[in-house]
Give the backbone structure.
Amino acid sequence: MTEAVVGALRAKGIETLSLEEPFMRFLDPLDLIAPDQHWNAEGTRVVAAIVEPYVQAMLGLAPPSTGKTRASR
Amino acid sequence: MRKDRRYRLALVGDSQVFGFLVGDDEHLGWLLDHDMPEVETYPFGVPGYGPTQEMLLLEETVLGYEPDAVIAVLFLHNDLSDETEKLAYGFLAETVPRARSRGVDRRERAGAVAGEPVAGRHARRSSAPTRHCSTRGAIYRFATFRTAAAPALADALVTLGLGSLDRVTERPQKNGQPDLGFRRIDGEGPACNVSWQCPLAHWLDGSAGGGRGVRTHGDDVHGARRPFRRRSSCPPRRSSSGGNSA
């Protein structure tokens, strides 16, 4: 289903960004989620750091001059 | 107010976007709004929503705010389940046994044999399949697009059977209207006020089909649920030069 959705969106010109690979880079991804599998506060910060560059690129905004460190574990 | 914001970003999604069980200054909308000074972020996250509801929300409410860009936060592992109500408010039937993720149990989860030393950092790693299984509930996919592409997103989801008006009518409603609720941000900085309405609250408290025993964000974290205050009208657009066009 995932590939079908991604393919359908791509056919419409909409690219998607998955959290899978960024999350799997963490030593223990469980540190990013609450017991109910929602992102916890740290996980949400990581997600924001992942998404922000894409938003900025889409809007034509320059990325921040200082590197963000909150997702650089 | 917020005259320096040149762009508007709307987030559409479920409980992850809502920020289930995280604080007012910890959910995704607040972080994006805080971190990108030129972008005014409107988080439209409604717990329990799936693609159908999200696309309706996008069409009926979100686009009225005239965002420059939209992020649809899709959980492709369970969004279908959301719509068949096998899953309520983002809760999966299988939860992560957090208590076992600490101490000795963490070593066991990482594959260490009892009585043997855990050798170095890599020994703490869970196997990839285990980690993937345990975290799959958090693995979302972001469809980030200019607002003009919103119809294309809806078309794609409907084509795949992920959008159905019939299913929407099965969702709890309030006063004949979809019971929408989402966090919003007024102002910025220390004076920033975040308010929200827990959607479908009447459903949770048992007045409409039986409570699920699921706790709400407001109840758990912040005591009394604060009222949601709708905008009286769509806020004025800001000019691209940063000034308020209204």
